[in-house]
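I had to read the description of the data format several times before I understood it. In essence, backbone conformation is discretised, so a fold becomes a row of integers matching the chain in length. I therefore recommend that a typical entry be quoted early in the introduction. For illustration, here is how one protein appears when written out as sequence plus structure tokens.

***
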Amino acid sequence: MSGPETFRDADLARRLLTGIGRVTTRPWSLMEVCGGQTHSIVRNGLDQLLPEEIRLVHGPGCPVCVTPISMIEAALHIASLPGVVFCTFGDMLRVPATESDLMRKRSEGADVRVVYSPMDALKLAEELPDSEIVFFGVGFETTAPANAMAIETARSRGITNFSVLVSHVLVPPAIAAIASSPTNQIDAFLAAGHVCTVMGTTQYEPLVERFNVPIVVTGFEALDLLEGIRRAVVQLEAGEARVENAYTRMVKPEGNRVARDLLDRVFEPCDRAWRGMGELPASGWRLTETFRDFDAEVRFDVPELNVPESPDCRAGEVLQGIIKPNECPAFGIGCTPRRPLGAPMVSSEGACAAYFRYRPAGVSGG
């Protein structure tokens, strides 16, 4: 499609790239912490268009990708139980555990269904009162309000055959873990606009003060990302570090107060394991005592699972920005979307999937 708007966007992109080039005097590494942003960067080749001094690093911004194998194994355990209808988003079907995935469980007879929202699962609970309906609640702060609403609605309606396998993780602790690593080489972070739409921007201020790194909130389109990169580089070149909102059309400093109040009622912080990164303190949510009856792990007495990662999968290093996906020896050979070793190859927001789809073999970015 072409037209005046297309030409205006191309002209603005050129001006942004020129502006970034003019202000850049030394090498800088920037990490985006959103899988949607990663796909936009790779699809549009932004990392190849930027000055060679600017290196874009892909962080743990894909919620499916950071879901640990132990949680996938818990999902498989629950889905295998008689009388259970296990509901999930399509992204989770082929995320590999040790020897299986939800797709294979479904082929073996488990009632695993793809839904488009937790409210779809709640509706099933009303329609199938003799079945236990379990929703796999995966995601960052963005998807948590919808899951919280479904849980609160179930409680208010007295629906007792509905529960949620909670695997929510939070962005700020992940940034803190990366920034505090002795091998950290990240100079600035691009924060995900949709997370900040819910949570606001103030949660990043302690990180800026602690690590002295700029954090720029940005959107997902190419122009949004270029503007976010430009602002981050301007700060770095000036020796500054602050939270900056480059997505003001959607993000307010306080976020969405109604959504945040709902989250405070339903969830409380907890330590959470991340795939490839280990357990990070206070990096996730669990249900509060008031709503603990809707916790699928508690309801079905899921045993504690300690499952090792595949020794051939370097997804943890990809998620921490240590290597690019195509720097993994298994990429495109032992690990493909049809036969994935790790979640980043099958998730719609996974960095490995983005490189496999958009980046020719041997072509790397800045």
